[in-house]
Batch of 2 targets.
Target 1
Amino acid sequence: MGKLPIIVGISGASGIQYAHKLINVLSDISYPFYLIWTSAAKKVLKYETSYSFKEFEAKALDVFEEKDIASSVASGSHLVKGMVVIPCSSKTLGLIAHGIDLNLIARAASVQLKEKRKLVLVIRETPLSLPIIENMRTLALSGATILPASPGFYHEPRTLDDLYSFIAGKVLDQFGIEHSIYKRWKTP
Ligand SMILES: Cc1cc2nc3c(=O)[nH]c(=O)nc-3n(C[C@H](O)[C@H](O)[C@H](O)COP(=O)(O)O)c2cc1C
């Protein structure tokens, strides 16, 4: 069996730049991935960036909208390595935490949990309310990885792109995908 694809879910939180970086790296190394957009993500993309949908979708195995509930990735019988939601809004976090498969992104994430596959949630909110903290706790206890979009600074970032690379690199680390897009800490 070849490489199992990763599902990249993009929800309507700030920081779609992190998803853009991740997808570019996956494309560069020919790592297969599916893409799921929520409707809010498409709006935020327009408000916050000058990226085009095509840039995201060009190298995807398949591209789905949140309403595409009958797509392959809605079923546990469709084998994938896991899923990342990047960025993950507090709404999508809440849906997943409570098993409410209201749209394809929540459904695909629920599938990863039930199949005990990797689920990484790049949550982007600050400050955090108690419901968000409780939802993160529930999901951490369910086996998901909560990976806040909070880049470190020990790799001496000089550009925004360095910050995007840090978060995208941490996601790749979760899936065991080799990369050198951020500088790892070494004993000084
Ligand atoms: C420009 C913009 C930035 C937003 N940033 C965030 C954010 O960082 N985190 C968040 O949880 N919601 C954010 N929202 C709100 C979500 O888009 C909104 O809750 C939406 O319903 C999320 O839907 P989705 O999870 O289906 O994508 C933002 C909305 C807009 C318009």
Note: The mean pLDDT is 96.
Target 2
Amino acid sequence: MPYVRFLNAVAKARRPSPIRQLTELLQKSPPTMISMATGMPNAEQFPFHEASFTLKDGNKVHISPSEMKNCLQYQATPGLPELRSWLKTMQKTIHNPPTWDLSGRPEQMDLMITTGSQHGMATVCDMLVTHGDKVLTANPLYSGTIAIMKPLGAKFIDIKTDAHGIIPEHLSEVMSAWPDKEQPHHSDSVNIPKLLYCVPNGDNPTGAGLTYERKAKIYAIARRYNLLILEDDPYYFLQFNKPRGRSFLSMDVDGRVLRFDSFSKMLSAGIRVGFVTGPKALLEKVNYNLQASVLHTSAVSQMIVYKLLEHWGLEEFLRHTEEVSDFYQGRKDVLLAAANEHLQGLAEWHEPSGGMFFWLKLLGIKDSHDLIMNKAREKEVLFVPGSAFTAHKDEKSQYVRACYSLATDEQMFEGMRRLAELIKEHQGKL
Ligand SMILES: Cc1ncc(COP(=O)(O)O)c(C=O)c1O
């Protein structure tokens, strides 16, 4: 699939860094290679020697002196080879992208490690979005994505949503409304959207999850109008309905999906390890961007993640994801019970399909901003007002986002009681 149409001027101008390429070459070279090429520091001079992490089950994961020396050093930009290889096998096992053949044929797909999935998204948008580009998204939209795309000049085109996320029929309607001369088969069409962004599971902020049928319809529309799909899926493992739904990546026969995964909810948010999977030709540009910016994600973080995954193996990792998912499902059930007890007649909601968020529509309130930012604080309860999740200037929102990841059962019931009181006060019922 040709990608030139999707790249902005910055991405087209990026070139590989000769020094970074040498780092990759050195990684693959035999120990007999004499290198006076790269400007690497001498790792013998670093004070760290080895490390050992104790897991919650009492097992220890050890980083040996030679592994330590390796991860303290500059690494190739796409990530530690052993971790990339482990993750490629995982993606192949879980998503089995149709164009991904790990055995033999030249690969059309690739995987790169990023400093959390948001870093991957920011880097990709840096190379795809030109000022004035239209991006198809849900509204409300993850605030981190607004923060990335808006300053780049993206114009957000809202696609209608319901409890199951983006409605494909509306997407089709929006795309077919563009005049024929703007359609992608005209090579100079610049106005028609080229990008579709979505959080397919446990959406932040709505908790919605796209069904397989919807994904298949959306993918077909993306093919018809030559769209790239940015699949931002940090809550993939937090789907409450089992078996987990298929990803866009799993149906990507063309190479039009860039998938963003995260370890933030499964292993650690602070370790900052995520990964992006997608067409090799696009990831090459991501590579050039990272070569010019962070050089690579912390190799110490990567090594810690790798040693844990190596110790566990895929099966144990997946077992862990089930445990984490069960935990969040339990938290969701408590918040649901608390909302049912206190907010009947005062708010409306859909039960989250996954993730960590509950999206509440406050009845009789046009804009939740003042209520949440001021009055709720006085009552010592914190939520995020819905206006934080719209990209449109001055758009009001009658929604609030409640996160059920941290609060205790008692706090959730008390939080919902306080919110009910606030709504009643606002409606003049108290
Ligand atoms: C939809 C979405 N994308 C990306 C991220 C960022 O994830 P990471 O910690 O991997 O950068 C979040 C975190 O809250 C999120 O909700």
Note: The chain has a mean pLDDT of 94.
